[in-house]
Every structure is written in structure tokens, then in C-alpha cells.
Specification:
110 residues, alpha/beta, five-stranded parallel β-sheet, 5 strands
Length: 110
């Protein structure tokens, strides 16, 4: 898996930096975006092997980003991983209605 590309989407600079450091150390090529719109724009010019995104993002949230990724023929096969601390009660409800597609995972830290 080393050498594969990962697009990390998070609005918290500390989270982006930590993911960048840890994943690069394991040999992954890391690209970062601070919101769903920037991530979607980046996906027009390249297709990563994996997208790791937070649910709570300013503007387009991570759930909508992954819906769009899975609907687009060019990015449909990208593995998507959603990571959240689920701080709000409504987050759990949102995950219940999240798209259940192949190559999509939801990781909840509580």
C-alpha cells in the first residue's frame, strides 16, 4: 500500500498536520483540503486511491462529498473513509442515512 495517494479532508489544521506526518511516514503520498469544495475541486485534476474525510466540514460536509465522489464515474472506485468524533447527537443520525456503497467506511471515535 505504500506509495498510494490519500486525500485528507479536515477543517482542523492540527488534524491535517498529524495525518500528513503519520501517513507520509508510512510511505503514502498525501494531499490535503480544508473543506469539501476544495476537495471536490482537487478531484477534477487527480484521483487519489483513498479519501479520508471528517464529517463536519464548513460548507459541504463530508457525507455530501462522499455522495458526490461515489456518484461520479471518474471517482466511483475511490475508497472513502469517514472519520469523526461524533460530538453532536445528530451526527449518529446522519451516519444512519449515509450511503452504504462498496469501498466506503465510517469510523466513529466516541
Amino acid at each position: 500500500m505504500a506509495g498510494e495517494s490519500i486525500l485528507v479532508v479536515d477543517d482542523e489544521p492540527v488534524s491535517l498536520k498529524l495525518a500528513n506526518i503519520l501517513l507520509r511516514k508510512e510511505g503514502f503520498r498525501i494531499y490535503t483540503a480544508q473543506n469539501g469544495e476544495d476537495a471536490e475541486s482537487m478531484l477534477r485534476s487527480f484521483v487519489p486511491d483513498v479519501i479520508l474525510t471528517d464529517i463536519k466540514l464548513p460548507g459541504m460536509d463530508g457525507l455530501e462529498l462522499i455522495r458526490r465522489v461515489k456518484q461520479a464515474p471518474r471517482t466511483r472506485a475511490v475508497t472513502a473513509i469517514m472519520l469523526t468524533a461524533l460530538a453532536a447527537r445528530g451526527d449518529r443520525q446522519q451516519l444512519k442515512h449515509a450511503p452504504r456503497k462498496k469501498r466506503a467506511a465510517y469510523v466513529c471515535l466516541a
